[in-house]
């Protein structure tokens, strides 16, 4: 496992600082109990009106390789190229309707919070997890008969950490590249909105 803590300007919790999105995966099974723990972490995310609109469709390679392969096939080719050793795929969906059938405008936001809790739990368990928007949502919906009220948001792949040198050269370099984010002054404004110069 590559230790890549975020170079934060201000100290933050080590779990958050250390979480990142690796692509180097080992071809070794992930325990089902670890998958369940990730889902349990997601279950306790916050949501507007406690609606809990997140839904997850989970594919474990060892338990059901056929279903896993069908889910894998909905990833874009670039994501397929580095996910050969992924052991778990978790589709993140948002229920766009409330229990009363009205539109839930915060469904995607809340599902994102649940996905982040899942990613943090994966990292806490020593696993590599990478969230991807690069999938064919329509193909996934068709392959798994997802009802229209659910928006297919992303796919998270999970595995044990692998050797970055097993990746194509450009991706191996990215595994070791410095981590960077926009500075705080670019993303946060105090007291009101100031038009960027």
Automatic annotation (TrEMBL):
Residues 16-62, 79-159 form the Nitroreductase domain. Belongs to the nitroreductase family. The keyword Nucleus does not apply. It comes from Caballeronia pedi. Keywords: Oxidoreductase. InterPro entries: Nitroreductase, Nitroreductase-like. This is Oxidoreductase. Gene3D superfamilies: NADH Oxidase. One of its GO terms (molecular function) is oxidoreductase activity. It comes from the Bacteria.
């Amino acid at each position: 496992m590559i230790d890549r803590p975020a170079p934060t300007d201000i100290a933050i919790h080590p779990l958050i600082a250390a979480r990142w999105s690796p692509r180097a995966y080992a071809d070794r099974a992930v325990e089902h109990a670890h998958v369940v723990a990730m889902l349990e972490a997601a279950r306790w995310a916050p949501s507007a009106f406690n609606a809990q609109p997140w839904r997850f469709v989970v594919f474990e390679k060892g338990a059901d390789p056929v279903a896993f392969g069908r889910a894998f096939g909905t990833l874009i080719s670039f994501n397929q190229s580095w996910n050969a050793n992924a052991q778990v795929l978790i589709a993140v969906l948002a229920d766009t309707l409330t229990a009363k059938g009205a539109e839930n405008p915060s469904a995607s936001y809340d599902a994102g919070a649940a996905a982040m809790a899942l990613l943090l739990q994966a990292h806490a368990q020593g696993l590599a997890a990478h969230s991807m928007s690069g999938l064919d949502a329509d193909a996934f919906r068709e392959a798994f008969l997802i009802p229209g009220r659910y928006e297919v948001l992303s796919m998270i792949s999970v595995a044990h950490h692998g050797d970055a040198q097993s990746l194509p050269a450009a991706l191996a370099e990215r595994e070791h590249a410095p981590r960077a984010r926009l500075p705080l002054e670019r993303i946060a404004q105090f007291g009101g909105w100031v038009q960027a110069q």
